[in-house]
């Protein structure tokens, strides 16, 4: 394969390809992750090339290292997504005590549903929360003008809700009932 320069556009393309096939649709390219979501790197590279999206190990390593959200982990010749799967995986993350408050970035059009139903995982296994408002603001901004909700994680934990934290610092919980949410501004 010809060596390509690793520019920002290529990095984003490879990252999106990895997210799609490690988090959501590994079967589309013939991958079968183990129960913890790991796949052999050589198998991933071969499968991607066989399905019309060749990339090098150098590009893969660059994408993993350069990703500001640390979406992927490499260990012992294998790779997996750190969180955000819609396929069944057990990331092996132990329950941990959360900080008193965590944050969730969204957009105004979702607020009525969130007020009624709380935060639900939608097509993922868990609700994703951030440890700080700045990160939650960036997450919400991907879909429009961000709105940041505070989650009373301390009260949730005291009430028996389980929290885990991924390798890249994303806080995970099954759902956040409305009573634990603090909405900005007037209702």
TrEMBL record:
Domain of life: Bacteria
Gene3D superfamilies: 3.20.170.30, RNA 2'-phosphotransferase, Tpt1/KptA family, N-terminal domain (1.10.10.970)
GO molecular function ontology, one term from the record: transferase activity
UniProtKB keywords: NAD, Transferase
A Pfam family per the record: PTS_2-RNA
Enzyme Commission number(s): 2.7.1.-
Record has NAD as a keyword: yes
Ranges annotated as spanning the membrane: none
Class in the EC hierarchy, top level: transferase
Family indicated by similarity: Belongs to the KptA/TPT1 family.
Function: Removes the 2'-phosphate from RNA via an intermediate in which the phosphate is ADP-ribosylated by NAD followed by a presumed transesterification to release the RNA and generate ADP-ribose 1''-2''-cyclic phosphate (APPR>P). May function as an ADP-ribosylase.
Descriptive protein name: Probable RNA 2'-phosphotransferase
Native source species: Streptomyces camelliae
Gene: kptA
């Amino acid at each position: 394969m010809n060596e390509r320069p690793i520019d920002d556009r290529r990095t984003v393309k490879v990252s999106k390809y990895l997210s799609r096939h490690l988090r959501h649709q590994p079967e589309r390219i013939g991958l079968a992750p183990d129960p913890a979501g790991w796949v052999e790197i050589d198998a991933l590279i071969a499968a991607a090339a066989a399905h019309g999206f060749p990339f090098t190990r150098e590009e893969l390593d660059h994408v993993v290292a350069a990703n500001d959200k640390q979406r992927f982990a490499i260990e012992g010749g294998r790779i997996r997504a750190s969180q955000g799967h819609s396929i069944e995986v057990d990331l092996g993350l132990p329950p941990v005590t959360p900080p008193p408050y965590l944050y969730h970035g969204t957009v105004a059009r979702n607020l009525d549903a969130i007020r009624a139903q709380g935060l639900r995982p939608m097509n993922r296994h868990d609700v994703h929360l951030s440890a700080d408002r700045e990160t939650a603001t960036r997450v919400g901004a991907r879909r429009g003008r961000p709105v940041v909700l505070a989650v009373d994680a301390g009260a949730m934990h005291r009430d028996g809700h389980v929290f885990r934290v991924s390798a890249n610092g994303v806080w995970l919980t099954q759902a956040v009932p409305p009573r634990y949410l603090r909405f900005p501004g007037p209702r």
